[in-house]
Design goal:
The complex is a heterodimer. By secondary structure, chain A is an all-beta fold. Chain A is built from no helices and 12 strands. Chain A is globular and about 40 Å long. Chain B starts with a strand and ends with a strand. In chain B, the strands form 2 sheets. In chain B, strands 2, 4, 5, 6, 9, 10 and 11 form a 7-stranded mixed β-sheet that branches. A 4-stranded antiparallel β-sheet of chain B has the order 1-3-8-7, with no helix packed on it. Chain B is mainly β. Classes of the chains: A mainly beta, B mainly beta. At the A-B interface, strand 5, strand 6, strand 10 and strand 11 of A face strand 4, strand 5, strand 9 and strand 10 of B.
């Protein structure tokens, strides 16, 4: 079974600085997708970024980018120029290509200090 | 545009009472539908998912059940709640198949259930 591990229960960053959240996953498949979701205090889950495993280029969305290391099965999220509104729980998620199911990690709580 | 509605937002129920959480999606057809539970300080646990009317897949054997009576309606139920059923329940939908946007989940606002 696929598993997703987020080894950092909590992280903090100073406003305007850069922070990297870690995620590793375990799968024997070659076709899959990886995601980062954000859950602010409102509890509304929001998609941050998506990466297809077949793409070598790392996905980027404005201040958010990933470092996808397929051989190492690592999928870290980098947040640049951190803002107070980035404070949230961040969940890494995995789905196998053709599967309807997404598996989530336990999350990392990010605090942004002014 | 697509929207997802989930209700009630907050629910306090005694142990042994029944439960019904409802989720509806607008602006799309034939979605995949999901129920996740988020316990305090933990990640998201997939409870049920559905790829069509009347088609329910259960991921975790437990005190809960799910039904999909209509294409865009997904209901989470229990006949008798347990203390351990307390948590934050999230409904989500995704595009079915290999279309653009497949595998991307869009979540509802969640339902906080407290069982006393």
């Amino acid at each position: 079974a696929q598993t997703v591990t987020q080894s950092q229960p909590e992280m903090s960053v100073q406003e305007a600085e850069t922070v990297t959240l870690s995620c590793t996953y375990d799968t024997s498949e070659s076709d899959y997708y990886l995601f980062w979701y954000k859950q602010p205090p409102s509890r509304q889950m929001i998609l941050v970024i998506r990466q297809e495993a077949y793409k070598q280029q790392n996905a980027t969305e404005n201040r958010f980018s990933v470092n996808f290391q397929k051989a190492a099965k690592s999928f870290s999220l980098k947040i640049s120029d951190s803002q107070l509104g980035d404070a949230a729980m961040y969940f890494c998620a995995f789905t196998q290509g053709g599967s309807e199911k997404l598996v989530f990690g336990k999350g990392t709580k990010l605090t942004v200090n002014p | 545009s697509q929207t997802i509605h989930q209700w009630p937002a907050t629910l306090v129920q005694p142990v042994g009472s029944p439960l019904s959480l409802e989720c509806t999606v607008e602006g799309t057809s034939n979605p995949n539908l999901y129920w996740y539970r988020q316990a305090a300080g933990r990640g998201l646990q997939l409870l049920f998912y559905s790829v069509g009317i009347g088609q329910i897949s259960s991921e975790v054997p437990q005190n809960l059940s799910a039904s999909r009576p209509q294409d865009r309606q997904f209901i989470l139920s229990s006949k008798k709640l347990l203390l351990s059923d307390s948590g934050f329940y999230l409904c989500a939908w995704s595009v079915r198949g290999f279309l653009a946007g497949a595998n991307v989940l869009t979540f509802g606002a969640g339902s906080r259930l407290t069982v006393l």
